[in-house]
Amino acid sequence: MMRPDFSAAKFASAPFPHLCIPQILRREEADRVLGWMQTRAPWALRVESFYQQYEFSFLAIDPEPEVQGLLTPPFTEIVRRTLARIFVVEEMRAGT
Protein backbone atom coordinates (compact mmCIF):
# COMPACT_ATOMS: atom_id res chain seq x y z
CA MET A 1 0.00 0.00 0.00
CA MET A 2 1.29 3.46 -0.89
CA ARG A 3 1.75 5.79 2.06
CA PRO A 4 2.84 9.40 1.63
CA ASP A 5 6.00 10.31 3.55
CA PHE A 6 6.13 13.91 4.75
CA SER A 7 9.29 13.45 6.87
CA ALA A 8 11.45 15.50 4.47
CA ALA A 9 8.80 18.18 3.83
CA LYS A 10 9.93 21.78 4.00
CA PHE A 11 7.51 24.69 4.43
CA ALA A 12 8.32 28.15 3.10
CA SER A 13 6.30 31.35 3.17
CA ALA A 14 8.06 33.33 0.44
CA PRO A 15 6.99 34.33 -2.08
CA PHE A 16 3.77 32.62 -0.89
CA PRO A 17 3.03 29.75 1.52
CA HIS A 18 4.10 26.49 -0.10
CA LEU A 19 5.43 23.06 0.72
CA CYS A 20 8.19 21.05 -0.94
CA ILE A 21 7.90 17.30 -0.30
CA PRO A 22 10.90 15.44 -1.69
CA GLN A 23 10.54 11.67 -1.70
CA ILE A 24 6.86 11.64 -0.73
CA LEU A 25 6.77 8.17 -2.33
CA ARG A 26 9.26 5.34 -2.04
CA ARG A 27 11.61 5.16 -5.04
CA GLU A 28 9.93 2.10 -6.61
CA GLU A 29 6.45 3.64 -6.23
CA ALA A 30 7.61 6.95 -7.67
CA ASP A 31 9.23 5.16 -10.62
CA ARG A 32 6.01 3.24 -11.39
CA VAL A 33 3.86 6.40 -11.20
CA LEU A 34 6.30 8.41 -13.32
CA GLY A 35 6.50 5.63 -15.90
CA TRP A 36 2.72 5.54 -16.16
CA MET A 37 2.49 9.33 -16.47
CA GLN A 38 5.16 9.38 -19.19
CA THR A 39 3.78 6.51 -21.26
CA ARG A 40 0.09 5.84 -20.61
CA ALA A 41 -1.56 8.82 -18.92
CA PRO A 42 -4.25 10.35 -21.17
CA TRP A 43 -2.70 13.82 -21.45
CA ALA A 44 -4.67 16.32 -23.54
CA LEU A 45 -3.68 19.81 -24.60
CA ARG A 46 -5.87 22.53 -23.11
CA VAL A 47 -5.64 25.97 -24.69
CA GLU A 48 -7.13 29.02 -23.01
CA SER A 49 -6.81 32.71 -23.80
CA PHE A 50 -3.88 33.19 -21.41
CA TYR A 51 -2.24 29.76 -21.18
CA GLN A 52 -1.92 26.34 -22.70
CA GLN A 53 -0.96 23.16 -20.91
CA TYR A 54 -1.22 19.41 -21.10
CA GLU A 55 -3.49 17.95 -18.42
CA PHE A 56 -5.68 15.04 -17.40
CA SER A 57 -7.98 14.27 -14.50
CA PHE A 58 -7.88 11.15 -12.37
CA LEU A 59 -11.64 11.69 -12.00
CA ALA A 60 -12.13 11.01 -15.72
CA ILE A 61 -10.27 7.69 -15.92
CA ASP A 62 -10.34 4.20 -14.49
CA PRO A 63 -6.94 4.28 -12.75
CA GLU A 64 -4.45 1.59 -13.65
CA PRO A 65 -2.58 -0.37 -10.94
CA GLU A 66 0.51 1.88 -11.11
CA VAL A 67 -1.47 4.88 -9.85
CA GLN A 68 -4.36 3.35 -7.90
CA GLY A 69 -2.51 3.76 -4.62
CA LEU A 70 -2.53 7.54 -5.01
CA LEU A 71 -6.33 7.55 -5.03
CA THR A 72 -7.14 5.28 -2.10
CA PRO A 73 -8.99 6.81 0.86
CA PRO A 74 -6.10 6.11 3.30
CA PHE A 75 -3.57 7.86 1.03
CA THR A 76 -5.74 10.87 0.24
CA GLU A 77 -6.82 11.23 3.88
CA ILE A 78 -3.20 11.36 5.10
CA VAL A 79 -2.43 14.00 2.47
CA ARG A 80 -5.57 16.00 3.31
CA ARG A 81 -4.96 15.98 7.06
CA THR A 82 -1.28 16.79 6.76
CA LEU A 83 -1.83 19.71 4.40
CA ALA A 84 -4.71 21.03 6.52
CA ARG A 85 -2.46 20.97 9.61
CA ILE A 86 0.52 22.60 7.88
CA PHE A 87 -1.53 25.31 6.19
CA VAL A 88 -3.86 25.74 9.20
CA VAL A 89 -7.02 24.97 7.27
CA GLU A 90 -10.19 24.61 9.27
CA GLU A 91 -12.14 21.39 8.80
CA MET A 92 -14.99 21.74 6.33
CA ARG A 93 -17.75 19.19 6.45
CA ALA A 94 -20.25 18.54 3.71
CA GLY A 95 -23.53 20.26 4.39
CA THR A 96 -22.16 22.82 6.85
Helix content: 25-40%
N- and C-termini, Cα separation: 33 Å
Global morphology? globular
| Total domain modules | 1
Which sequence of SSEs, written as H and E, runs from N to C?
EEHEEHH
Tally of strands: 4
* Coarse structural class: alpha+beta
Strand order of the largest sheet: 1-2
Largest sheet: 2 strands, antiparallel
Beta-strand content:
5-15%
Q: What are the salient characteristics of this protein?
A:
alpha+beta, 96 residues, globular, single chain
Could you describe the 3D structure shown?
- With 96 residues, this protein is of the alpha+beta class.
- It has one domain.
- Helices cover 32% and strands 15% of the residues.
- It has helices at residues 27-39, 65-68, 73-86, and strands at 10-12, 18-20, 44-47, 52-55.
- It has a two-stranded antiparallel sheet. It has a two-stranded antiparallel sheet with strand order 3-4.
- The radius of gyration is 16 Å and the shape is globular.
